[in-house]
Amino acid sequence: MFKINENYLKLPGSYLFSDIAKKVKAFTDANPDNKIIRLGIGDVTLPLAPAVIEALHKATDEMAVKENFKGYAPDLGYEFLRSAIALHDFKARGVDIAIDEIFISDGAKSDSGNIGDIFDVNNKIAVCDPVYPVYVDTNAMSGRTGEYQPDLGKWSNVIYMPCTIENNFAPQLPEETPDIIYLCFPNNPTGSTINKAELQKWVDYANKVGAVIIYDAAYEAYISEADVPHSIYECDGAKTCAIELRSFSKNAGFTGTRLGFTVIPKELKCGEVMVNSLWARRQGTKFNGAPYIIQVAGTAVYSEEGKKQTKEQIAYYMNNAKVIKDGLLDAGYSVSGGVNAPYIWLKTPDKMTSWEFFDYLLNEANVVGTPGSGFGPSGEGYFRLTAFGTYENTLEAIERIKKLGSVTT
Ligand code: MLT
Predict the structure, then answer these.
(1) Alpha helices in 115-195 (DSSP H)
(2) Signal peptide position in this chain (predicted)?
(3) Whether pTM exceeds 0.90
């Protein structure tokens, strides 16, 4: 008889956003006339920018012509896109990243899950708590965690770094030494950031203890404050300890189009082994690349028009963030995030648990958010709203929440 990967049996329930979708479906089936406003999953609502659409059309037409047709993409991705990334995302910020240190992919979610393939199962991981569930679940799937402890909402054999109001939602260096450290800034779900000096401490620590940092910078385009780094490679020594994940989903609306990339500097080594070569080997074997037309569309994000248009989209979402934040503050909520990130993190009122507040908002205001406890035990008593809705819906959602009355937290 064949055997399954029993690690999958250790996983609790389904993926957070699938649980939420099921609850919302049950509510809409029972209340078909109610207009639900979804500020739950961080999915964009604005259409792709005109410069991106134009590039998509052009590339699609090329595919119809024998001389221009493209089959499999190069393993690492097309050079035209990798050069644009190296120039605009890194060189423009004073960081030298070579194009063969950039691996184009279909998004940061898959890369953050797949990156574990190249690391030994006995590495110990450290994650922020609350945390984007993909990091933990994928490590559980590959057997790098212990058991899930439902009473604690935690996995054994994982180092949790609590991010709470007391530490301004910034993780502290852990007491126990990890091998792999997951950091995400601007943070999903709390919307917090750390400044360059603080990030430098993590880089110095990782280099000292011989850990690798998986740095998820999917939300870097939302940074508005000058002292917040856009890339971990702005810190000295990061090339010997860090892998950076980037996405086109949040900065250019590619959630349904799928495009991202991972940076692995050649200086990142385990003994004599270059981690970059392992990832190249892994991707060459298991991945056939992001589609040509999508890579062309991604390159258009870096054109003058593309930059201008996507910047306007980000400003639109950040205006929503302000509407949410100001509205909630007015109503007496305790709120953070929403300044360098499209997520607003609020304390649930009246000692409600995160899921109680989820049900309350869904039933009373027909607004969907994400329960903080779904991101980890330190998220209990918190709730996340995204700024990725339309302006009109965002405004209406906040009006509805305000109508529920002022709260004390
Ligand atoms: C979220 O809501 O946390 C994001 O949509 C997750 C993701 O980007 O996969």
Answers:
(1) 133-141
(2) none
(3) yes
